[in-house]
Design brief:
By secondary structure, the protein is of the alpha/beta class. It has ten helices and eight strands. It has a single domain (about 1-295), classed as Arginase, Chain A. An eight-stranded parallel beta sheet has the order 2-1-3-8-7-4-5-6, sandwiched between helices. Helix 1 packs across helix 10. It is globular, with a radius of gyration of 18 Å.
Length: about 300
Amino acid sequence: MKLYYSDHYTLPLPSNHRFPMDKYGLVRSSLISQKIVTPEELIPATPLSLETIALAHDESYIQALINQTLPEARRREIGFPLSERLVLRSRSSAGGFLEACQTALQLGLAGNLSGGTHHAHRDRGEGFCVFNDFAIASFWLMKYRALKKILILDLDVHQGNGNSSIMGQTPGIDIISFHGKNNYPYRKVASSLDVEFNDFTEDSEYLHRLTNVISGLATDYQIILYQAGVDALKEDTLGKLSLSMEGLRKRDELVFGFAKSHHIPVAVALGGGYSKPIDLTVRAHVQTFMVASDLFYKKPPS
């Protein structure tokens, strides 16, 4: 299982910042220590070219980031201090997901130990998202790999408003979002299918509705882009839902099981996770790749 990472591009944040930047390195080291992947299967991501980013973003927005001239109001919407380091890290994160997509087409499964930046719009960033990796990858795959049918399965607890604002009217791209009804973003953009949950929703309802949706999916998608956010976990400080660790495991089993049974490649991005302690977020992210590895690579008992 090949996984791409960009945590070597660190981004210093204030000690009281809400974003858990440390989780990326912790996930990578945990995957190695638990022998889910070997060090050789972990590949540093290549930063995207500005030309590739422009497949999904306005040139004026890209240049404002590169030149560090983004207006203060737009900087606040992103939620990170604007710096050259932020832009480089964001290019690397998006690059890792595009590489994961290309590898998934070859091998059936690959992942990016970052990304899922589904709040970034064509002309602006929001919610800790600078460049929309799913939109960039989708348009690249259509242009350079001639893909005609892509499924974006967004199971982060926050609705992927940027995904839908950029790609919502694109023929051949279906976007399914499972998210908290009363959570950020408070102005949502309609997806192909939006499945909303009330606060404190638990495993049984969530898994029942996910099972129903997956059982009705078409089976001729050429790739699934899976936003595997773990912020639906009960302990998550920004989540508002009440899924257990076991519920997240079963969620991932449903997704990967569908893909494997129908021979559809899957590219995985981490998405959100804001639990305290951070160990719970790391454990949940690692569990996603453990489930993927077991389903795609573990030999059945003889």
